[in-house]
Amino acid sequence: MRGRRRGGSVVQPLHRNNLITPTRCDPMMAASSRDWNVFKQIFADHWEPFQQAHPRYQTAYYDSLVAKMLACGNPEKIGYIEYRCLHCGQGKHLVAMSCKSSLCLRCAKVSVDNWVSQVSRVLHEGVIYRHIILTVPAMFRTTFYHNAEVVLNAFMRCGAQCLDDVYSTVRGKALRGGSITVLHTHGRNGQYHPHLHLLATSGGYDDQEERWEHLEYLPYALLRRKWQWHLLTMLRRTLETGAINR
Predict the structure, then answer these.
(1) Residue 70: which of 95, 105, 94 has the closest Cα?
(2) DSSP letters of 61-99?
(3) Which one has a higher pLDDT value, 35 or 144?
(4) Exposed, middle or buried by CB within 10 Å (0-12, 13-18, 19+), for 158?
(5) Dihedral class, residue 73 (left if φ above 0, else alpha if ψ from -120 to 50, else beta)
(6) H-helix or E-strand containing 141?
(7) What whole-number distance in Å separates Cα of residue 166 and Cα of residue 220?
(8) Distance in angstroms (rounded) separating the CA atoms of residues 103 and 100
(9) Which pLDDT score, from 0 to 100, does residue 83 have?
(10) Out of 10-24, 25-39, 68-82, which region has the weakest mean confidence (pLDDT)?
(11) Nearest CA among 233, 162, 156 for reference residue 204
(12) Cα 246 from Cα 240, distance rounded (Å)
């Protein structure tokens, strides 16, 4: 990294990093907020009991996310950049590195902003998009929870298939839409509630006539019935494969 000149003095950054994330080089400049510290304390106090109550979270993946989040903002644990004046060598200042954990209230915000920026570049100019949410009835959530590795993959594919079916039914011919699907496994209250957020095109492409068909309106009643059918069909087929436990 290059030094910076401030007020006639040269500040030289010296990189210090540990083994948690050896390739990270984004400084954590924001000051700690009260909510962020409370959030970290909740994990520090209750993460192990939570894992004991929910064995599916006893994996290296989740342990890594929590460990990095708890270490975020601590220069000695997460690594840091050291700034010193090259003239006098005094005034050492440490800036902690970011943890980049998806559980971190500060670092995850940066990741979300980057994701939004990337998505905005792949959207098609002139095409109208809709935000559609597809949920799972409470009676099926236990099945989803105990068989998440198999069911959730099919669940995401099911959402796109449902929208193509709706588009085709409304127009009376086969249409193929476009969508970006985001899976949420929990609701705002923190309880297990798998659902899909789809940023979907308002219409689809007609392969036969090779043109785009725009849809001004999507009937809610039709979308609801189609989603019920696709969701139940997906579950039935997944169960019949024997890949998951009934």
Answers:
(1) 105
(2) HHHHHHHHHHHTT-HHHH-EEEEEETTT----EEEEBP-
(3) 144
(4) buried
(5) left
(6) helix 141-146
(7) 10
(8) 9
(9) 83
(10) 10-24
(11) 162
(12) 9
Q: Are 199 and 136 in contact (CB under 8 A)?
A: no
- Extract the tokens encoding 28: 């954590």
What values do phi and psi take at 212, rounded to 5?
-90, 135
Please write the tens of the pLDDT for every residue from 116-166: 888 888 888 888 999 999 999 999 999 898 888 889 999 999 999 999 999
Query: How would you class 38 by CB atoms within 10 Å of its CB: exposed for 0-12, middle for 13-18, buried for 19 or more?
Result: exposed
- The answer to whether the beta carbons of residues 5 and 11 sit under 8 Å apart is yes
pLDDT of amino acid 32 = 53
Q: Name the helix (H) or strand (E) containing 6.
A: strand 4-6
